[in-house]
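Example record used in the benchmark description.
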Amino acid sequence: MTVAEGTPLVEMRNISVAFGGVHAVREVTIDLHEGEVIGLVGGNGAGKSTLMRALSGARPADSGEILIDGEPRTIRNPRDAKAHNIETIYQTLALADNIDAPANVFLGRELSTPVGTLDDSAMEDATRKVMRRLNPNFKNFVSPVRSLSGGQRQSVAIARAVQFNARILIMDEPTAALGPAETAQVRDLVRQLKAEGIGIFLISHDIHDVFDLSDRISVMYHGRLVDTVKKDDVTTDQILGMIILGLKPGEASEKELAQLELST
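Model output (structure tokens):
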């Protein structure tokens, strides 16, 4: 089966979210397949993060429906999302800096021994096992994560999601503030997750990340979905036209695209 065939892992249909009188998301429909990366892009305030918060349960949608494996599901809170194997890696990573990688991977879902104490050995073994899949070069399992590099910290956050059987992963700006080597490391992690069949929504302002990693690109503009396009069918200028002008490929003139290129 190739990407975009078969029943999607998740479909979000006609999703709307409002904050008072402000419509942050207006009737957006988007889907994601097994082993696919959807790049979700748009300017500040376009609604992409709010749309993903509806999927993660952080801010339930006001209207519309969410289907998982073709079946309608109700996601009212993050617990509901996790029950459907939806995990989110926020830009802040939400790691506890004062504890080590295994403790972070199992944070809030710790393993216990038969006598009720923390089973540190089992948690470390499980963390080493998942890290061998994701990042074999990761070796620091005993130091507080504050001592890790940005790329290693991303590895810990991703390991936490994968350890608990994520099938749908929301990644918010995964390479923000990382250097070139760490960015390359995170991109390798995303490719590994994709190879394992995990579907990924990738929120990013980095157009290079989007083109390097995505199969399809969904562009939002003022709360609406401009279009979802195959990465191989568009140029970066066309995507910029969608982001800045809210116009689909072919709707922006050559002059408008040229002006965008000069301004970026």
